[in-house]
Structures are given as structure tokens and as C-alpha cells.
Amino acid sequence: MLLRAPLLFDGYWRNPAETEAVFQDGWFRTGDLMERTPHGAIRLIGRKKDVIITRGGKTINPQPIETRLKESSLINEAIVVGDARKYLTVLLEPSTTTDARSAEVLAERLRAEVARVNADLARVEQLLAGHTDNGYCAAGPQAQS
């Protein structure tokens, strides 16, 4: 996102190198990623520093994927990784309040949550579900059961 306004600061105090890095032709580059909604509103969707660039050169913002996964009552934390890799991987921390009767049942429910999120993602953003033995669920080709 680029900003320009009369009351916007004109640089970082005693840091001309950083000031030069964030200003371009009088515009302040915030580092935020945004998109326009169908109604024309601006929606912030993440930070530029958080962007993943896959081995195939595709640019992916992991934050919306992580947020969608964490909407589930089954998931406490979700971390999507995949920089310079052919696929994305996600580590999931299951909620401590999950009432799954076994690790197998929990893994199956987590796979269903990944499938729910995948349904709305472009192919390059999709995650493949599996699990590890340490209670965390991983997604990606190397983790398939």
C-alpha cells in the first residue's frame, strides 16, 4: 500500500537509509498488502515481508490461509511455510479443548478442516493433509499418511 498525505511523517528520526527505503517519489510504502473488494473497498490482507515465493515463482500470502484454518474450533495455531519449495506445508496445533477420542480421530477431523479451507484456494495455495506423531498435524506431500 502506498500513502501520501499532508500530515504524514517525512522520515525516520536519525535513520536516512530506512527513510530512503520506504519513500518512493513522495509516496510512503507501508509494507501492507491489500486488495479491493467487489464493492471497491480496500481490505488489508497481510504484510509484504510475510509473502512466500514458491520454487515455481508463485507469490502466496500465507496469512489469509492461516486465518481461515484458525477459524476452526479444532485449531489453536496454523503456520504455513513453503518458501522456495514446490508446495506449501502447514503445521497445525490442535486446540486443547478438542474432544477427539484418539489421535486418529483428531487427525481425520483436522484433515477435514484443511479440505474445507482448500475448497476456496487456488491450486498453488492448496495444502495436502497428513499428521506427525508429536500431536501436531502437518500438511504437504512429505507428510501424507
Q: What's this entry about, in short?
A:
The chain is an alpha+beta fold and 145 residues long.
- Gap between N and C termini: 41 Å
Overall spatial form = elongated
Q: What's the oligomerization state?
A: single chain
Q: In order across it, which strands form the biggest sheet? A: 1-3-2
Order of helices and strands: EHEEEEEEHEEHE
Description:
The structure is a single chain. Mean pLDDT is 84; it is low at 135-145. The longest helix is centred in the last third of the chain and has 16 residues, at 103-118. The chain has helices spanning 16-22, 62-70, 103-118, and strands at residues 2-3, 23-24, 27-29, 32-36, 42-47, 52-53, 59-60, 75-81, 89-94, 137-139. It starts with a strand and ends in a 6-residue tail after the last strand. Helix content is 22%, strand content 26%. The strands form four sheets. The protein has a three-stranded antiparallel sheet. Strands 8-9-10 form a three-stranded antiparallel sheet. A hairpin with a 5-residue loop joins β6 and β7. The chain has three helices and ten strands.
Strand and helix map with partners:
Blueprint: E1 2-3, H1 16-22, E2 23-24, E3 27-29, E4 32-36, E5 42-47, E6 52-53, E7 59-60, H2 62-70, E8 75-81, E9 89-94, H3 103-118, E10 137-139
Antiparallel strand pairs: 1-3, 2-3, 4-5, 6-7, 8-9, 9-10
Features:
about 140 residues; alpha+beta; three-stranded antiparallel beta sheet; about 20% helix
